[in-house]
Amino acid sequence: MTQYVGELNPPCRLMLTPGPSSIDPRVYRALAAPLVGHLDPWFKTCMDETQVLLRQIFQTENRLTMPISASGSGGIEASVLNTLEEGDEAIVAVNGVFSDRMFEIASRVTTKVIKVEAPYGLPVDVEDVRRAGKGKKIKMIGLAHGETSSGVVTKLDAYRKVADELGALLVVDTVASLAAVPLNVDRERVDICFSGSQKAISAPPGMSPITVSPAAEEVFRERKTKVQSWYFDLTTAMNYWGKERLYHHTPPISLIYALREAMRIVVEEGLEARWERHRVNQDALIAGIEAMGMGLLVKNPADRLPTVTAVMIPNGVDDVKVRNQLLDEFNIEIAGGFGPVKGKIWRVGLMGHCSQKPNVLLFLSALEKVLGERGFRTPAGAGVAAAIQSYSHAETAAAVSR
Ligand SMILES: Cc1ncc(COP(=O)(O)O)c(C=O)c1O
Q1: pLDDT, tens only, 298-348
Q2: Ligand 1 atom with least separation from CA of 19
Q3: Which of 90, 232, 246, 276 is deepest in the core (most CB within 10 A)?
Q4: Is the CA virtual torsion 37, 71, 19, 173 positive or negative?
Q5: How many Å lie between the centroid of ligand 1 and the Cα of residue 149?
Q6: 308 ligand 1 Cβ < 6 A
Q7: Coil, helix or strand for 299?
Q8: What distance in Å separates the CA atoms of residue 127 and residue 112, rounded to the nearest whole number?
Q9: Per-residue model confidence (pLDDT) at position 397
Q10: Of residues 259, 117, 126, the one with CA closest to residue 196
């Protein structure tokens, strides 16, 4: 049976989701650059440059710094599988779906993983982690810096302190925070830090940047058993990303081009300017949402992840119908909630290339129209006006500091 399949022609969406984010035209151009072999001398230079950029974005001198050929979940697998062996004790701080994924992966390696939990909308209290680890030989403490399922950011310094007290490695998921939220891997002494290409870095999905401290490398070297996954064994993968450049697997070359270009854009903007841009745009979004009479899941402003805002869905409003109308009428995609907050929150992403003033204003006005038609009336223009007001404060502050 023959069936005609037409030319690829995807819609041009504005992805205000918790990832992937829309990408800069420069990144599309990099994707279309001619393919070379993964052992081509030219590509080896391209790999060096990719690692240089990764170190700048993670803010680290770590030798073992590379993009894993996998989505963000591959970063979790690699971190956990290289660190833990059967019988090891570990703690994972769980406050949503993605930190729970780290717990699930760790539990497949060793049965002695302690889950320390907080409800959606809150970071895990570090005192609970300290109590859970007391008197135990904890090898690793894992957490999500930005928990995308609830829009919560967790401060790392207190976790580092507890990891030091327990003699544990600190493993941090920065899939939703790297290049958007202040982070300095070396200064904050994160042992294993991984991310995803598709969020605030704004490259296509499919790569998971990772960096590993010398202390964590030492733990890898002292393993008694082989890493259970051949593909994610970081020591052998480093034969390719290290000095030798020996074949390990064929990496997604075009994705590496795209990641390299997206990171060049990050570095051109500057990390601090980028963190500030994410903060200012989220502030404006929140001002607009609140002026429209809606609340947020994360009550404490200091706990709000700048890349993902969890908006409480007003009573009587249909989650899916609103999201579908935003997509059909405005080409805007936002996300719903998972697990206990399914049907209760919308997750609005302002990440990387998408974290822009015009997107915030467009989204608020589109949402006003859609909500009005779905029975939730808001004062005309209130959301946009509040966001503009919020920007006026930010712009004054920026002008003063310049
Ligand atoms: C914090 C966090 N960790 C891990 C992941 C998993 O990444 P991926 O879906 O790219 O495998 C995500 C994805 O949204 C995430 O937000």
Answers
A1: 999 999 999 999 999 999 999 999 999 999 999 999 999 999 999 999 999
A2: 14
A3: 90
A4: negative
A5: 9
A6: no
A7: coil
A8: 20
A9: 58
A10: 259
| Contact assessment for residue 308 and residue 347, using Cβ atoms and an 8 Å cutoff | yes
Report the residue count for the chain.
402
Strand order across the 192-194 sheet? 64-68, 208-212, 192-194, 169-173, 138-144, 89-94, 113-117
Structure-token pair, residue 131? 């109590």
Residue closest by Cα to atom 8 of ligand 1: 72
201: amino acid identity, one letter = I
Q: Which helix (H) or strand (E) is 212 found in, with range?
A: strand 208-212
CA–CA distances in Å: residue 396 to residues 119, 126, 400: 37, 37, 6
**Is the pTM here over 0.90, yes or no?**
yes
Give the N- to C-terminal CA distance of the chain in Å, as an integer.
66
Give DSSP secondary structure letters for 310-337: EEEPPTT--HHHHHHHHHHHH-EE-EE-
DSSP-assigned letter for residue 304: B
Q: Which atom of ligand 1 is nearest to the CA of 145?
A: 1
